[in-house]
Design a protein that fits this description.
The chain is of the alpha+beta class. The protein contains five helices and 13 strands. It is elongated and about 65 Å long.
Length: about 210
């Protein structure tokens, strides 16, 4: 995904200035890191909202263009209005090609419809994590991490150490010796089992009559 965001320099001082920007359809933001001073910018709200409707916006390297200057960045924080579909503020981190970045990327689970623990053993898939904090060089940044659960059996758990990671990607939790669970297949809850048994009994009664 290649996204270029048009931006303009703004006065970083005071909340009044930020409120005025928002009234005029702009979103205040800041770009920091990369060995340079933070830079206060503003972006068009509607254009930004369209770009943010794509999930990859949050896990891709973006380009912020200010006049003739372009900067490569990733999204680090998004502040949203609690009641309206409005972006209040954004934080971008500059990307330096030879410096690792840390970012949360989503998990894409595959094979759920054919998982052994579901199809053969009647279990229920339970996601214990929906994203992962990774660290890597910018050129290795993945849009997501794929987790295949097709061979997962009832009561088995996939941990971070079980995952196959793309080249150059490390999991922050494992770097801190935290081998956290990601997904498991659990037995159905009692009420679900009772409903299933009740339906089977009703079917048997119907056939007998």
């Amino acid at each position: 995904m290649t996204t270029e965001l048009q931006a303009e320099v703004r006065d970083p001082r005071g909340r009044a200035g930020s409120r005025a920007l928002r009234r005029n359809g702009k979103v205040p933001a800041v770009v920091y890191g990369g060995g340079k001073a933070p830079q206060a910018i503003a972006l068009d709200h509607n254009s930004l909202l369209r770009e943010m409707s794509q999930a990859a916006f949050y896990t891709s390297i973006l380009t912020v263009k200010i006049g003739s200057e372009k900067q490569s960045v990733v999204v680090k924080e998004v502040q949203r209005h609690p009641a309206r579909p409005q972006i209040v503020h954004l934080d971008f981190q500059r990307i330096v090609e030879d410096q690792p970045i840390t970012l949360n990327v989503p998990i894409h689970f595959v094979g759920e419809d054919v998982a052994k623990g579901v199809k053969e053993q009647g279990g229920v898939i339970e996601h214990l994590a929906t994203d992962l904090e990774i660290t890597c060089l910018p050129r290795h940044l993945p849009e997501f991490i794929e987790v295949d659960v097709s061979q997962l059996e009832l009561n088995q758990i996939v941990h971070l150490s079980d995952l196959k990671l793309p080249e150059g990607v490390k999991l922050v939790a494992l770097e801190h010796h935290q081998d956290l669970p990601v997904v498991t297949i659990t037995p159905p809850r009692r009420e679900e089992a009772e409903v299933a048994e009740g339906g089977a009994e009703a079917g048997s009664t119907g056939e007998a009559s």
